[in-house]
Specification:
This protein has 166 residues and is mainly beta. It has 1 helix and 11 strands.
Length: 166
């Protein structure tokens, strides 16, 4: 598995070099600098009169409907590029846990206030479980035990809440 990741990174870097060269940008080869997280490069001076000093700007974790990637920037000219792409997460289901504790819930309680005791998780196709902070909630607090529905993408889950009836 690790061997495949290395080859994917090598191919991504080579593709980036080929694309930049074809547009008249730098002809560059990059190697990892183990001392500072920077990338070194050797380039011809087609569009630049310097060697880029690549610095890591950010690593964006993959999320649902968004790939993950690593972004680098040249400290001299500000040129940026993204690499090390990771596929977006794909959910296969969701589930939730509601911990009511000593929270008093009445029929006129705003359903959204239940979020403080609610934990919603997506189960991904890669086996990973991710806690969600953005999801829709719906339901009515009309019975002593009321059912609230949580929605994320095309998935739903429910939880029970004890309502103090007057």
């Amino acid at each position: 598995m690790q061997f495949n990741k290395v080859w994917v990174k090598v191919l991504l870097v080579l593709t980036l070099v080929a694309v930049m060269f074809s547009f008249g940008a730098c002809n560059q080869s990059k190697t990892e600098d183990t001392t500072g997280g920077k990338l070194n490069e050797t380039l011809d001076t087609t569009d630049h009169d310097h060697e880029h000093e690549w610095a890591l700007i950010e690593t964006v974790e993959p999320w649902f409907e968004r790939r993950g990637f690593t972004r680098y920037s040249c400290g001299i000219c500000g040129t940026e590029f993204d690499t090390d792409f990771v596929d977006a997460l794909e959910a296969e289901s969701i589930y939730c846990m509601f911990i009511q504790g000593d929270m008093v819930v009445k029929p006129d309680t705003d359903v959204q206030s239940l979020r403080s005791g609610l934990h919603v998780f997506a189960v991904c196709t890669n086996g990973m479980e991710v806690e969600l902070d953005s999801y829709a909630m719906d339901g009515a607090l009309e019975a002593k035990t009321s059912v609230i529905t949580v929605e994320f993408m095309d998935f739903t889950a429910t939880f029970n809440v004890t309502v103090e009836m007057e």
